[in-house]
Design brief:
Helix content: 40-55%
Structural class: alpha/beta
InterPro entries: HTH-like_dom, Integrase_cat-core, RNaseH-like_sf, RNaseH_sf, Transpos_IS3
GO molecular function: nucleic acid binding
CATH superfamily of the largest domain: Ribonuclease H-like superfamily/Ribonuclease H
Protein name: Integrase catalytic domain-containing protein
Number of domains: 2
CATH class of the largest domain: Alpha Beta
GO biological process, one term: DNA integration
Radius of gyration: 27 Å
Distance between the termini: 82 Å
Strand order of the largest sheet: 3-2-1-4-5
Domain Integrase catalytic: 103-274
Shape: elongated
Order of helices and strands: HHHHHEEEHEHHEHHH
Length: 281
């Protein structure tokens, strides 16, 4: 020991202390058992395979609040999902982007609604075309129309009526003017459609040409519906899609967590922020 201390140029007592130093004590609390949490996570993603750890955490939080249990920490959910290979693959593609500086979301319900459409392909070659309406505050999918033919101006007018009735009941005019934000599709820009919108108290607003981000909330809903519902559901024919559409919309409104809503579903957000009793689609 003396020779070693002399060779490295340090005092022998110091070298002895280094050699006999006890192993460092673990700081903090020991990690909680993961078996129950893993089981809960697996049960959720078995039905919702496109949900990442933040939405899984939102659903776990909802379950814990309903049963009076402790809410798991979001970092723990991420760690457990990573450890067990349950995280989604990170998307690394860089798609084409168009700049949009405007703000689509609003702070008060029933001040701006947005609408858009999408196409769902079936295994037998049939196509189902859907047009929908969202509230730009609470993100609720208030109404939709679906057809195997193209969405017409008459379909859009029916959508307007159904949306107004969903929020206000059977009235001829909304209590206050509401913006109706859409793209420049012919079914939205038709003269009769725009006139009808103004007659019932809606203010037609269209986005700039070739700027889908200007109706980004509706575009995001299309992506969500295709990713979390259409892609993981059987679509043998159009009739199967028609049967599932109300189930998808109801799940989206009642269950699907939104980052912009504090990872609450639209109807959770409505209930918590306004204490209203939202009607169903």
């Amino acid at each position: 020991m003396s020779a070693v201390a002399q060779a490295v140029g340090i005092a022998r007592p110091h070298l002895s202390a280094i050699r006999n130093r006890p192993s460092p004590r673990r700081r903090g609390r020991p990690p909680l058992p993961d078996a129950e949490l893993v089981s809960d996570i697996r049960a959720l993603i078995a039905d919702l395979p496109t949900y990442g750890y933040r939405r899984v955490h939102a659903l776990l939080r909802r379950q814990a609040e309903a049963t009076g249990r402790a809410v798991p920490n979001v970092k723990r959910v991420y760690r457990v999902m990573k450890l067990h290979g349950l995280l989604l693959q990170r998307h690394s593609g860089r798609g084409e982007e168009r700049r949009h500086d405007g703000r689509i979301a609003v702070d008060i319900r029933n001040t701006r609604w947005c609408s858009d459409g999408l196409e769902i392909g079936c295994d037998n070659g049939e196509k189902v075309r859907v047009a929908f309406a969202l509230d730009c505050c609470d993100r609720e999918a208030m109404s939709y129309v679906a057809t195997t033919s193209g969405i017409t101006a008459e379909d859009v007018r029916d959508l307007m009526v159904a949306t107004v009735e969903h929020r206000f009941g059977q009235v001829n005019h909304v209590p206050r003017q509401i913006e109706w934000l859409t793209d420049n599709g012919s079914c939205y820009t038709a003269h009769d459609t725009r006139r009808f919108a103004r007659d019932i108290g809606l203010i037609p607003r269209t986005t700039p040409v070739e700027s889908p981000q200007s109706n980004g909330m509706a575009e995001a809903f299309v992506r969500t519906l295709k990713r979390d519902y259409v892609r993981v559901s059987p679509k043998p024919h159009a009739r199967a899609v028609f049967e599932q559409l109300p189930i998808w919309m109801d799940h989206y409104n009642r269950v699907h967590p939104h980052r912009a809503l504090g990872y609450r579903s639209p109807r959770e957000f409505i209930d918590r922020s306004t204490r209203e009793d939202p009607s169903g689609l």
